[in-house]
Amino acid sequence: MSTLSDFNQQLLQFLNASPTPFHAVSSMTELLINAGFIPLKENEDWSLKDFQGYFITRNDSSIIVFTTGNQQYTKHGWRFVGAHTDSPCLKVKPNADLYQQNYWQLGVEVYGGALLNPWYDRDLSLAGRVTFLNNQKQMCSTLINFEEPIAIIPSLAIHLDRNANKERSINPQTDIPPILGLIAEDSTEKPTLNKLLIDQLNSTGHQDIKEILDYELCFYDKQPPALVGLKKEFIASARLDNLLSCFIGLHALVNSDYQSNEVPCLLVCNDHEEVGSQSHCGAQGPFLQQTLTRIIGCPITTAKVMSDSLMISVDNAHGIHPNYADRHDANHGPILNHGPVIKQNCNQRYATNSETAAIYKWLSQQQNAPFQSFIVRTDMACGSTIGPITAGELGVKTLDIGVPTFAMHSPRELTGNQDGYTLNKVLQTFFKTPQLPS
Question: For a Cys-Cys bond, which of 53, 118, 379, 437 suits 37, CB 3.0-4.6 Å?
Fold first, then answer.
């Protein structure tokens, strides 16, 4: 098993290499191939073998990873872990070019429930997927990542808005288009995003681009992930919600001794959770159900398997902020580095019930691992996860759990340096346990 230091260093590398869901899935694919997992394609027949690991992607932004065990799927049931690959961000509009006061800007949409204030005054880069027509008139798609800071959203100086610290609001249409550069006074041709994309792709080896057809691009904070604090007890990074959970689940599955483990295990990381999950690759779409149908076959057998299976939905939890402790229920304020958080809500915004919570506590006891509980204040609205959606789609018992986090949905979030590692160890135990308590 990796040490805490090794785990966190690998996590930081994964976060840095994954500025978009497309890049996250690409990073996971590389890790899986190196670990001996075999890629599958949806439009081909599958011939699965015992004690082997496989993975399949959809839309380049969602991934399902599974191990077959001895393929006696009704003997133990499945061990499921779910997470999501997307994070709130600023997505570039289709006709994005803006020219104002001799500045070149790009229009953006706000994806998900983003905290907008922290996007100001940051070194921004651009990444995503580009679809183009090549010189042979074939349609191709590729990932793009500028890596260097190419844009910024400057704040309005306080001299021009004396009430900024009291009541400044943000209009997402007019106030946040990033600035990419100045337009020269003698310029005869304005810069365009399409030309920028072609130049960038040409510089990275794509020499046969005839025309940019479309793109899915988002800006991201170029500041790399880091261990911070006097004793380096915190992890600061973009996209901890929810790439942290993706990495925890992947690391646990890859290290679950799948080549000798009889228990079939599966990790699903869906895109579009932050905007409701209803898409062909989201948790409310058919991706997971269709994949399980192909693996297990008979609907009757699938129903039997689900009755003995458990889904652990892993998504970050709200740690109690020392400056805003009154935003928490007094008895349910998770503290960073005090263990993963069991998330419960009687209105089914989380899918945890007393039995699934008890199973997680039992698994934690096997590792002598700490855990905490979270319930939102009764007078506040509660967020949700893929947990209730997946439970409803599959009819599988489900637990919602996550690592306590500050500044969720900011471009720079914060977690403890130990909680992810703790959850990883418990999930490894979960994957390798032949019989869960009932």
Answer: 53
